[in-house]
Structure formats: C-alpha cells, structure tokens
Amino acid sequence: MRKLMTLIAVALATPAAATLSVGATAPDFSTQAALAGKPFPFALSAALKKGPVVLYFFPKVFTQGCTVEAHNFAEATAEFSKLGATVLGVSADSIGELAKFSTLECRDKFAVAVATPQMIKDYDSSLGMMGLTGRSNRTSYVIAPDHKIVYAFSAMAADGHVKNTLEAVRKYQATHKRG
Q: Domains (ranges, CATH) in the chain?
C-alpha cells in the first residue's frame, strides 16, 4: 500500500493526457456499482435514458486525492441531479471496497462502480505508469444521452473535475432543452 501511495503521489506531478475526444461515441458497459453501501448492476445505456452521465475514473478508493474528489462530487450531487445528470465514479477496486467508499466518502450521494480492465482500455484511462497497470488515471467525462462525449478532462490532481463537469452539463442542458 505504501508503494502504491508513493507512486500515486509521483503521478500527481505528471499531467495526464486527454483521453477520448469530444464527439466520440462513449463505449457502452455494464458493471457492478454501489450506492449507500448497497451493490447493484449498472448499465451505461440505461442511465443515459434518464439524461447525461458524468463518468469519472479515479485510481484507488480511500487515497487522499480520490477521497477529496468523492467529497467534492458528493457536495455537488444535488446540482447535477437538478440538471438531470447521473454521476458515477469508477475505479478498479473490488465491489466490497467500493460499497464502503460509497457510504464513507461519497456520503451516500452517488454511485461508484468497478472499472473493469476493458472499461479502462475502452475509455483510454489507464494509469499504466510505473508498474500501476490495471489502475485508471483520473479522467472525467460528460456523456450525452446519444452516447456522445460532450466533455473530457484528464488530470491527476482532483482539482477541477467537479467544477468542470458541472459546467459542461450546464452548457449541454442549455443547448439541449429537456422535455
């Protein structure tokens, strides 16, 4: 664990590259998620029927940056909900760890889910540096109901992910009036 923490700290100093481009089709996926400590199946296609999805990849539960990011998303969940958006955090952790994280750090406000190796590959969000294969970097997407990516932001620091995705959802909703 100490080695992982050190490697993540070093990675924070390294900017992450942008991943999937705005306008690209978001790969569909199904995975196990947890909300308020309770596991459930999550399918992107089903969530998109309700409105845009904020999909954010993060490296590891209960690490400093990931905890800060979860708290920030929890504080903004009501605003995302008003805009008709679903927030989903994904990490390569086990569903058991994610269930605990969903309550303790996400404060029962939004779901977190297992990022499978295929999801990490499909969303081009592999940390893949310094021996950390199998973990995702910190990348946030806003996906429109038509499966198109309308916003992508990749940076290992937690700063900016919530503010930027919230602004992207606002802009999307302003140009695509909900019925």
A: 2-175 (3.40.30.10)
